[in-house]
Amino acid sequence: MQFDVGLSRQTLFLHAGPCPVAILTPNVAVVPLPRFFSRSRGQIIRISPTSLAAGLLLVACCADATGQESKLDWFGDLRLRLEQDWDSLQGDGTSRDDRLRMRFRLRGGFDYDFTDHWRAHVQARSGPKLSQQSPHVTIKDFDGGSSGPYEFNLDHWYVEYANGGFEAWAGRNILSFLHQDDLFIFDNVTYAGVGGSYTKDFDDHSWYLSFNYVALPVGMREFVGNGTIGQVAYQKRFGESALTVGVGYMLTNADPDDPAGETLLTGNNARDYSELSLQLQYRTAFRGTPVLLGLDVMHNAEPYGDAPPGSFTAFHKDDDTGYVIEMLYGGKEPGDWQFGYFYSHIEALAAHSSYTQDDWVRWGNANQVRATNIRGSELRVLYTMRENLNVFARLFFVDAIDLLEPGDTTKETGNRFRIEVNWSF
C-alpha cells in the first residue's frame, strides 16, 4: 500500500507492504519515555535520554565486535539550504525585514538488529533545543541577523518489534501515521511514548491501522501534555494506478500548570485539540511519468465556547477547518525531475500549530512557528541526481486568513524561496 509524496524516509506518505522498514512505516524511531514507573516502589524514575542512547550504542558496538555478520548500520544526512524571505507583514501593519540566510541540517545515528524482529534506532539532529519543529541551524544571515545556535539533540531512539504486517515501538519517534504532506502531521516533530501499526495486503487492495499514545514535546528536552493519535487507511489498486483513503484523529490534552509549556505560542500550552483528518490520494502514470493528486481535509471538533473573552481561543473559536490540494508530476529516481503544486487553506485552530510544519512562513519566533491561519501556494521542483543526492527548490506565497489577535490591524503575509541540496550517507 502506498501514499507517496515525501523526499526522504521520514516524509514518505504511505508505503505499506513487503518493503524495507524505513519505507514501510513512518520511520519508527523510539525514544525512551522521560519517566518510567517502578512497580516495586511505586516511584517515578527519571532516566537520561543520553544515558539510554549511550547504553544502546555500547550494546550495539560490543555485539558488532564479535566477528559475526554486522547487524549495526550507521547512517546520516546533510542538508545545505539558501533561504530568502521578503514582503512579510506583521499584525500591527509593520513589515518584517527581508532576510537571506544560509542554513544546514545534520543528522546521524545507527540501527541495530537484535533479531529478525527486534531492532534499536538512535538518531541525533542539529537544531535549537527549544524548537521541536526545526532541525536547521543558520550558518550566515546575509542581512545582519544572528547565526546558530550550534546545538544537537537526540530526536529518535527506540526499540521496535516488526513481524509481517505488525509493527510496534516504544520511546521517542515520529508518529505511526500515514500522510502525504506536513500540514497536519509533521515528521520533524518527534514524540515520547508508544505506537504501532498493522498492514494487511491482498491482491488488489490493502488495509492499514495505527495507534499512538504519546507525551507532547516542548522543544527537544521537555514534554507537556499528552496525545492519542490513530488512523485507518484503505488502498485500492488498478494496474498502475491506486486510490488511497485515510481517516485519522489527533486528540491532545494540554497541561497549563506546567511552566515549560509557556514556550509554545498562541496559548497552545493551555488548549486541547480534537482534530479529525480525511486524506485522499490518487496515483497513476501519464506516458510512463508518475502523477499524483491529493486532498487533505482537517477539522478540529474541540468546543471552545467557554474560552475567556478576548483570548486567542475565543477570537478564533470558529476557525476550525482546513484543507490542502496537491499535485505532483514526475519521479524521484536518479535523473528524474518532479514538479509540484500545493494550495493550503488552514484556519487558526484547524490544527495544533506547535506540531505542524515550519516551512511555509516565518511567523512566530526563532524557536517556535505558528503555521496555521494561512492560505497560499507552494510551487516545487525536485531534481534527483543520485539515489542519495537531490536538489530541491520551493517557492511559497502566503496570506493570513484572518487577523491574528484582537486589536491587530493587518493580516499577516509572507513570501519565501528555498533551494537546498540533500545528501544522505
Overview of the molecule:
By secondary structure, the protein is mainly beta. The chain has three helices and 23 strands. A 16-stranded antiparallel barrel has the order 5-8-9-11-12-13-14-15-16-17-18-19-20-21-22-23. The radius of gyration is 21 Å and the shape is globular.
Descriptive keywords:
two-stranded antiparallel sheet, 3 helices, mainly beta, 425 residues, 16-stranded antiparallel barrel
Short description:
With 425 residues, the protein is mainly β. The radius of gyration is 21 Å and the shape is globular.
Write the layout of secondary structure elements.
Blueprint: E1 2-3, E2 14-15, H1 21-24, E3 35-37, E4 44-46, H2 49-64, E5 72-86, E6 88-89, E7 95-96, E8 99-113, E9 118-126, E10 137-141, E11 152-163, E12 166-173, E13 191-201, E14 205-218, E15 222-238, E16 241-253, E17 273-286, E18 289-300, H3 312-315, E19 321-330, E20 337-346, E21 374-386, E22 389-400, E23 413-424
Antiparallel strand pairs: 1-2, 3-4, 5-8, 5-23, 6-7, 8-9, 8-10, 9-11, 11-12, 12-13, 13-14, 14-15, 15-16, 16-17, 17-18, 18-19, 19-20, 20-21, 21-22, 22-23
Helix-strand string: EEHEEHEEEEEEEEEEEEEEHEEEEE
Describe the main β-sheet briefly. 16 strands, antiparallel, barrel
Quantity of strands, as a count: 23
Biggest sheet strand order reads 5-8-9-11-12-13-14-15-16-17-18-19-20-21-22-23
Name the average pLDDT.
Answer: 88
Taken from the alpha-carbon principal axes, the silhouette is globular
Derived structural class: mainly beta
- Which range does the strand content fall in? over 45%
Number of H/I helices: 3
Helical amount among residues, as a percent range?
Answer: under 10%
User: Could you tell me the radius of gyration in angstroms?
Assistant: 21 Å
CA(first)-CA(last) distance: 27 Å
Low-confidence stretches: 5-47
